[in-house]
Design a protein that fits this description.
The chain is α+β, with helices and mostly antiparallel strands. It has 3 domains: about 120 residues, Rossmann fold (3-Layer(aba) Sandwich); about 140 residues, Probable inorganic polyphosphate/atp-NAD kinase, domain 2 (Tumour Suppressor Smad4, Sandwich); about 35 residues, no CATH class. Helix content is about 20%, strand content about 35%. It is built from 7 helices and 20 strands. The strands form 4 sheets. Strands 3-2-1-4-5-6 form a 6-stranded parallel sheet, sandwiched between helices. Helix 1 packs parallel to helix 4. The chain is globular, with a radius of gyration of 22 Å. The chain starts with 6 loop residues before the first strand and ends in a 5-residue tail after the last helix.
């Protein structure tokens, strides 16, 4: 494959002066290296309207199929990374985030490291990490399929009307677990455990731990604590028909489907993980401290012998930050 055969998708956050300038720099760097920059149809249209001078960039799905994308460079925060994962879902391209947002927990690089990140993409100096994703199915009260999608962070079943509770029965592996009224239920991957699930009181799960978290939202029940189950177990949330309550399922806050009374939402591990490109093998603990600004003053650390052992383990493998 020649450099000219390499198609790199550039995914851009909302049109702000800094993101437009970042897109121009990345596109110019890719072209200078002989690679072909590609934009989604939406990004292409918006950047044309901003007169960014990128109207001649190839368009995903029109000029280049998703299966022809080598990698996606994301200029934005976690929401833009989720959109990029959606854009390349039907291909095999990994996603590399450059944080232009706030927390940017999924991002691999910050704004100041953008030029170096692009250089390493061109040189293929990155590794690819596969993250557990969810398969989400919606069925009616007769178990007929209504809708199917996927999620990288989480699937959340929520009430459609603010003034009414959602009445649900929760099931794990084909067996009923508990019934209660609630605002909803979040089913999260380890990747999503620092997002909606965390805000709802769920546990943080290290990315190298394969598991699924189930977190009820404001449940009226004695037994409605967050659960962590195995990655190959199946969670189902049924809306009780007797309540005549409607709900809605959201996946990654991007895709939604209205749930009629009696609907059944089945969530299980997808057979297709999401691929993230990584430039660093830092520890996930360090990322938590950095992104959440956690207080660590006063830490004395392990002994010198233990420190050396930990450093060796980190340098060889990292822990999936």
């Amino acid at each position: 494959m020649t450099q000219a055969d390499r198609s790199i998708l550039v995914v851009v956050h909302a049109l702000r002066p800094d993101t437009v300038e970042a897109a121009q720099r990345v596109v110019a760097a890719l072209r200078a290296a002989g690679a072909r920059p590609v934009l989604s149809a939406d990004d292409h249209a918006q950047l044309i309207s901003s007169e960014a001078g990128l109207d001649d960039v190839a368009v995903l799905g029109t000029d280049v199929p998703v299966t022809g994308i080598e990698l996606a460079i994301v200029l934005g925060g976690d929401g833009t990374i989720l959109r990029a994962a959606e854009l390349v879902r039907d291909g095999s391209a990994p996603v590399l985030g450059i944080n232009l947002g706030h927390v940017g927990f999924l991002a691999e690089s910050e704004r100041d490291d953008m030029d170096e990140a692009v250089r390493r993409v061109i040189a293929r100096e990155y590794t690819v990490e596969e993250r557990l994703a969810l398969r989400v199915q919606v069925k009616d009260s007769r178990n007929a399929p209504l809708y199917e999608t996927w999620a990288l962070n989480e699937a959340s079943v929520e009430k459609a009307s603010r003034e009414r509770l959602l009445e649900v029965v929760m099931e794990v592996n084909g067996r009923p677990l508990s019934s209660f009224g609630c605002d909803g239920v979040v089913v999260s991957t380890p990747t999503g455990s620092t997002a909606y699930s965390f805000s709802a009181g769920g546990p943080i799960i290290w990315p190298n731990v394969e598991a699924i978290a189930v977190v009820p939202l404001s449940a009226h029940a004695l037994f409605a604590r967050p659960l962590v189950i195995g990655p190959d177990q199946t969670v189902a949330i049924e809306l009780l028909e007797r309540a005549s309550t409607q709900g809605i399922v959201w996946c990654d806050g991007r895709r939604s489907f209205d749930l009629p009374p009696g609907a059944r939402v089945v969530v299980q591990r997808s057979d297709r993980p999401v691929r993230l490109a990584r430039l660093h093998l830092g520890l996930f603990t360090d990322r938590l401290v950095r992104k959440f600004h956690l207080p660590v003053e006063g830490w004395r650390g392990p002994s010198a012998i233990t420190t050396g052992t930990l450093r060796t383990a980190r340098d060889e493998a990292g822990d999936g930050s």
